Amino acid sequence: MKKLLSILLAGAMVLSLAACGGDTGTSTSEPASASTGTSEPASATGGIPKDEIKVGVIHLSDPAEGSGYTYTHDQGIIGMQQNLGLRDDQIVRKISVDDTAAAAVETAITECVEEGCNIIFATSWGYMDTCEALAEEFPEVIFSHGTGYKSNGTNFNNYFGRIYQARYLSGIIAGLKTETGKIGYVAAMGQENGEVTSGCNAFAMGVASVNPDAEVYVSVTNSWFDPEGEKQAAERLIAEGCDVIGQHCDTPNPQTAAEEHGVWGVGYNSDMTKDAPGATLTSVMWDWSVYYTKAVQNVIDGTWVAGEKVDNYFGDMADGLVTLGEFNSDLVTDEMIAKVEEVKAQIVSGEWDVFDGKTEIMDNEGNAHTLEGADYGSCNWYYENVNVL
C-alpha cells in the first residue's frame, strides 16, 4: 500500500493540494486525495507555489507546555509561517510522538505524507532512523531531521547548529556566579552522545575561562524528555553542593528545582526566566525560524527539489540560529554581562570560536583532543573540570 501511495503522490505533487487543516493537536486534517486538484504544474523551475505548499512537523511533546524543546521548535514553525505568509491549513502538526516508539513515529510521518506535506521536519534525535527509511520510500517528499547525523544527499538532510557557542557564554555567567565552586549540569544523554557532551564541554570551558578552580558535575537522565527525571537529576546536583544548574534537557524543571532550593540556573531552548524568575540567570536558546524559513522558501523557489542534492544545515550565532536569552537583571551584574559581550563579539565576528579544530583541549583523563564544532558527534570525552555523578 505504501508503494502504491508513493506512486499516487508523485503524480499529485504537480496538482494543487486540497485544503486540509493542521492544528496543535495530533491532526484533524482530511487526507489529501491524489485525484483532487486541477491546477497547472507548480512552476517552471520545479518549485511549489506558496499557497499550495504544505509543511509537516513531528513534535516530541506538546508545544502547549509553553517552555523547552518542543515549544521552541514550534515557535520556529510559527515564525516561519509568519515570515512566509502561510495559512494555518498549510501546517500539519503531530504532537507528543514518542521518539523511542518506532511504529508511532512511522505512523505520524506517514500521515503527514498522506495529508500532502511536501517537506516534513522531524524535530527529535530518535526520529532519525525512521526518516531515513521513509525518505527512501517517498522520494518526492523532503525529510528534514533535527539533530542527529544521517542524511542521504537527496531528500533527507539534518539540521543543527553551533549551540556550544551560547553554552560557552552561559558558562562564563555560571563561573562568575557560583559561590560554592560546584556547578551542576543535567544531561539528557551520557558521554557517548556527542551532541550532549560537546555542549557540556563548552559550558565547562566557559566556566573555567573565568573560574579555573570551579568544577562541573553532570547528572544524566538517559532521556530526551523526562520531566520528573530532570527534576530529580537537578536535586541530586544541588544535594552535591552545586549552586548553579545548567541543562541539556527539554523541560524547565531543573530551573524550577533550582528556585525551590534557593540556588541559580541556566535554562535551555526557550527563555526560562519566566519559569523560575528567582533562579534563572539566562538561557541558551535557539531561533529555529531561521532554518525553517530558509528551508521552506527553498522548496517554494525550487532551489531545493526532492531528488536533487540537498545540504545539511549547521547554523550559528552569526546567522541568528543560536542565541543567549536576556540576562536576569536581579541576578546578573553589569560586569558579568560585559565579559559575556566581549567574548560574544569575538565569536560572532569569526575572530574566535570555542571549537576551532586546532586548539588542544584536555579531557578529565589527561588526554588531549581537538574538535571542530561541526564534528561534534565525535566528542565522547569530558573536559578536564567535568565530573560525572
Q: From N to C, what is the helix and strand string?
A: HEHEHEHEEHEHEHEHEEHEEHEEE
How many helices in DSSP terms? 10
Spans of at least 5 consecutive residues whose pLDDT stays below 50 are 1-45
Compute the separation of the termini in Å.
50 Å
What's the Cα radius of gyration? 22 Å
Strand runs, count: 15
Largest sheet: 7 strands, mixed
Q: Write down the overall mean pLDDT.
A: 89
User: Could you state the oligomeric state of the chains shown?
Assistant: single chain
Query: What structural class do the secondary elements suggest?
Result: alpha/beta
Residue fraction in strands: 15-25%
CA-based shape: globular
Strand order of the largest sheet: 12-10-9-8-6-7-15
Percent helix: 25-40%
Protein name: BMP family ABC transporter substrate-binding protein
Pfam families: Bmp
InterPro entries: ABC-Purine-Binding (IPR052910), PnrA-like (IPR003760)
Keywords: Signal
How would you characterize the overall build of this protein?
By secondary structure, the chain is an alpha/beta fold. A seven-stranded mixed beta sheet has the order 12-10-9-8-6-7-15, sandwiched between helices. A six-stranded parallel beta sheet has the order 2-1-3-4-5-11, with helices on both faces. A two-stranded antiparallel ribbon has the order 13-14. It starts with a helix and ends with a strand. Helix 2 packs across helix 9, helix 5 packs antiparallel against helix 10 and helix 7 packs parallel to helix 8. It has ten helices and 15 strands. Strand 13 and strand 14 form a beta hairpin.
